[in-house]
Amino acid sequence: MRERYATMTRGLDWEPSYVTEEQMYPYTQFEGIKIHDWDAWEDPFRLTVEAYHKYQSEKDKRLYAVIDSFAQGQGHLQASDARYFNAVRMFLQGVTPLEYQAYRNFGYLARHLNGAGARIACLYQSIDELRHNQTQTHAVSQYNKYYDHLQDPNVMHDRVWYLSVPKSFFDDGLSAGPFEFMLAISFSFEYFLTNLLFVPFMSGASFNGDLSTMTFGFSAQSDESRHMTLGLEVIKFILEQDEDNVPIIQDWVDKWFWRGYRLLSIVALMQDYFLPKKAMSWKESFELYLEQQMLEGLFPDLEYYGIRPPRHVDQAITEKNYMPHQAFWIFYNYAHAGAYNTTIPFADEMEWFSEQYGEHFDDFYRPAYEKAREMQADGNRFFNGGLPMLCQVCQIPMGFTEPGNPVAHAQRVSHYEGERYNTCSDGCKWIFDREPWKYRQAWLPVHQIYQGNCGGNTIPEVLDWYGINTSENGEYLDTTDAKNWAKWHEPANVS
Fold first, then answer.
1. Taking a C-beta distance cutoff of 8 angstroms, is the pair 220, 91 a contact?
2. Model confidence over 58-81: pLDDT tens digits?
3. What is the model's pTM?
4. CA distance between the termini of the chain
């Protein structure tokens, strides 16, 4: 079987006689990575093109059967609450376009990597990513009939302020070299972020009655397992080729761990606050998939090659107790300027947060929520009318606090060529100082709004440029989502 696979993949490769290898593959030279033997690439999944497409087509048949059945049965009414669809919005706006970005660049790598084994692996992943973009769009499209802010995810991804967080992550990877991109996506995005998105969050979708989203999530997860295996193969292959590669890989592991972790703040928000029925807290997910699987499972294996756990991982562990609450408070403050709506957690949810996060929640976040509820009851639902300072690297508003001190806002400052740049943490500052010429070019939404590049200088003009319907954002209890949900679930009048 192994020989047949080699014949059907690497056996189709050839060495050109009219150009040099450097001319044929010019992009694998400038990062400093040394590859001496591309044939040493060991394919973790030995799939031929025929077997790959047969396998995927069977998965699609089952997936679309479930999606069609769910749609015909008015499955959206089975959801726990209309608040849940904010999670669907966030996923479609923030994650689905990233699948398309990954499709593009893995297709690029399928041409520009020297080794045939690496190229065929990237080809399969490229097709996977396009499939994910399509199946996610199809699975969520049924909700577009009943709920707003699902109609223009690609436009919103390019324009809306909070979506610059995932977009900047991929822009960072796409503008790197081929080896860094492979590590960034296969390690940070696939191994780290995907585990925390496609398993606990998709289970939460099922728990909240969204069979459609759950089905595409678990259909994609088998692909993601292959991608994670590819990510480990990428790291080990490069490390085994030359010891000079070790410090470069360590640098990238440090950088992309923190970039992926900051991106996960949106996932933490979705999981803890946008799922009305709670299945698994962010803290529990973090402990299982990062602390146990990565730190206790992956990095002891990589220690053999000289790779240590990521820089700043201790801060991430400290923040597991409060990061989702701080992210929610940012989104609560600016719900009037986004394609989503929020409300203060209900009483049973507050008790669940107390159980999951203990005194940390009760001491620092419950009082703020209770005060906000009182203000709303008095007709003063609070929205922040100003524009926040953004981190120059992760582009999240500066709402995080100092590690271990949830009452002191964190801010770091770097200077480069006479200009001042603000970052939200030691991790983001370290990334900026490492490549300041790159991050100084960041497209920061707040700066662009002030410069008049986002449709105008007033909130209505900016929201119009975003394509946001203001009847569906802001306070959830005041939206047509809430009114329709109550109407659709009124008991039948049988008198």
1. no
2. 989 988 999 999 888 898 999 999
3. 0.94
4. 70
